[in-house]
TrEMBL record:
It comes from the Eukaryota. SUPFAM superfamilies: Acyl-CoA N-acyltransferases (Nat). It holds the Pfam family Acetyltransf_1. CDD domains: NAT_SF. It comes from Lynx pardinus. Residues 277-378 are annotated as: Disordered. Transmembrane segments: none annotated. Residues 297-326, 345-354 have a biased composition (Basic and acidic residues). This is N-acetyltransferase domain-containing protein. One of its GO terms (molecular function) is acyltransferase activity, transferring groups other than amino-acyl groups. Residues 284-295 have a biased composition (Polar residues). Residues 159-222 form the N-acetyltransferase domain.
């Protein structure tokens, strides 16, 4: 696997060269996996980690992870560390293995700042940031116990690029989009749904910049939402943003889907209430203190949960967290990688986990009834 390392060193990265053809990518991946499983490769190959450690490329050291919660047939092949099968060290793309950090890099100088996710290669970058980086590497695995699926295939998202690398992202729910997989309610306003910034880039105002970008993107809408419940870290971002932008104070609401008036709470009012230490007058929010709520968007998903006794389906990439300038951690995990990424493509759809990672949303277990399939992360 020296060729892959050489290409990375030469400044050639998957997002820059991957064809926008998911079907062809999956076909090539399945073919490669078949050679590993059947042991018909001419020689044993290894993948070298930055530490110098080498991992044998064999069926027992790889797993398939579901890329999209609503299209489980689309999978990506990941190489896991034999010493920690929940840690992904490389991804199979363009008929080659790429270290996770190289998957997040680009040689295109035009990729800088917040850019809308459009290509298949950018979807893979979003998946790695969400599932691999946040899901397993940059959060406290001892906290929380929520599991979610990956983002939907058509999720509206923007990736934050800095100095040739993807360092964060945020996703939104557009007005009129379905709150679940089947027919039913649609969002009544645009919603700032999930957000994540890598640890080394936190405390630089990036969380506030993302929230501002969201507000500017939907300039024509009279009301905008931030998914309920808002985490303490995200609340700090909202407070900082609203203090600097008084014109947005009447537009920003904490919302539950689909965002009807009875499902909204004024974020600016919460800021004022916290400052005056007065109780929250909104019955829907009275159960939580603004300093301890985590944010989530109920959508479709395998988990049923609800506030005040009502059941709601939640989506995978949706209950992520909000972030703060101090830390933005949106959690999503395509499943406990050691378990959801099975060696067989036909394995169960991976789940994804949301946990507190500095800016990550707090576990919503306090607010919702655990789903039958919920588990406690190792």
């Amino acid at each position: 696997m020296e060729a892959e390392a050489a290409r990375g060193a030469a400044g050639i990265y998957p997002v820059d060269i991957l064809e926008d053809d998911p079907e062809r990518h999956l076909e090539a991946t399945l073919g490669y996996y078949a050679t590993l499983r059947e042991g018909i490769r001419s020689s044993v190959e290894v993948f070298s980690l930055p530490t110098g450690e080498q991992i044998k490329l064999e069926a027992s050291s790889v797993c398939f992870c579901t890329m999209y919660r609503d299209e489980p047939q689309h999978k990506i092949l990941a190489l896991v560390n034999p010493q920690d099968t929940k840690t992904v060290v490389a991804v199979y793309i363009q008929e080659a293995w790429w270290a996770t950090e190289d998957v997040l890099r680009t040689s295109d100088p035009a990729r800088e700042g917040l850019m809308k996710v459009q290509s298949f290669g950018e979807r893979i970058v979003l998946f790695v940031l969400n599932v691999v980086i946040f899901g397993r590497l940059e959060r406290n695995l001892d906290d929380g116990d929520m599991f979610f699926l990956p983002h939907p295939v058509k999720e509206q998202a923007k990736i934050l690029w800095r100095d040739g690398a993807a360092v964060g992202f945020y996703t939104t729910k557009r007005k009129g989009s379905l709150c679940g997989d089947g027919p039913g309610a649609c969002y009544l306003l645009p919603v700032f749904d999930t957000v994540f910034v890598r640890r080394t880039y936190r405390r630089q105002g990036l969380g506030t910049a993302m929230l501002q970008d969201f507000c500017e993107t939907f300039r024509e809408d009279e009301a905008l939402g931030v998914s309920w419940p808002i985490s303490p870290a995200m609340f700090k971002v909202c407070r900082k943003f609203l203090l600097a932008h008084p014109e947005e104070r009447g537009r920003l609401w904490e919302v539950e889907p689909p965002g009807a008036w009875g499902q909204r709470g004024s974020i600016w009012l919460k800021v004022q209430l916290q400052q005056s230490r007065l109780p929250d007058p909104h019955p829907g929010n009275s159960q939580e203190d603004v300093s301890s709520c985590g944010r989530t968007s109920p959508d479709d998903g395998p988990r049923m949960s609800g506030r005040e006794g009502g059941k709601k389906e939640r989506t995978s990439g949706e209950r992520e967290q909000t972030k703060s300038d101090e830390d933005c951690g949106v959690e999503e995990e395509a499943g406990q990688l050691g378990r959801a990424c099975g060696a067989e493509p036909a394995r169960k759809e991976a789940k994804r986990t949301v946990l507190d990672a500095g800016l990550a949303w707090e576990s919503q277990k306090k607010h919702m009834r655990p789903a039958p399939n919920s588990q406690t992360p190792p």
